[in-house]
Amino acid sequence: MAVTRPLLDLVNVTAGYGQTPVLFDVDMSVAEGEIACLLGRNGVGKTTLLRSIIGLNALTSGNIYFNDADITKAPTYKRARKGIAYIPQGREIIPYLTVLDNLKMGFSASGKKAKRIPAEIYDFFPMLKEHLQRQGGLLSGGQQQQLAIARGLMCNPKIILLDEPTEGIQPSIVQEIEDTLRRINIEKGITIIVVEQKIEFARKLAQQFFIMEKGAIVEKGKTDKLADSLLHRYLAV
To answer: Which homologous superfamily does the CATH classification assign to the domain defined by 8-92+151-235?
Structure first.
């Protein structure tokens, strides 16, 4: 009988930029339907890890398995078509395109020729429907983040990789994003990995945590067991 892997499974992943190593023998497993948070100080490799999962950074060694398939050597576009959505830090909204056109860009990741925006997008993000003809660059930071998440949903992903979704966003919008991500997870069963600096946001949203230090996973477990002593050791400045 074949062994069933988690939805996402990283085995001894080592990666970096050119000749500069950043990740060292990372092992990380995330189950289907789970929300996991990736914690650690700036510069420990969290963004590089997400970029490696989506294929923007080639591995030096190790393997990445997704949905029971080895995607280690798969190009980024094929990973997207398999169901991995990546929402980078800074959101990368195209500022001169309208909200509607930014949303439509999400179709390209799936490789399908759909034309209509699914109604559920406006259900999750009603603000977007009010600003469809507005340029993306004229939205607030919080509105742009909601647009970026919505664009990621357009390819109907199995997993969303979110890098610093609350950075520079006012508290009321942070709460909206938390509530919406939880709805997306529960109602659509989408797995989420979020890199986050706001500890309370991560604790309330995620079921599992991973802490990174110097390019490696040094602690992991259930977020309800995330001790303040670990936060002080690995996250205090």
So the answer is: P-loop containing nucleotide triphosphate hydrolases (3.40.50.300)
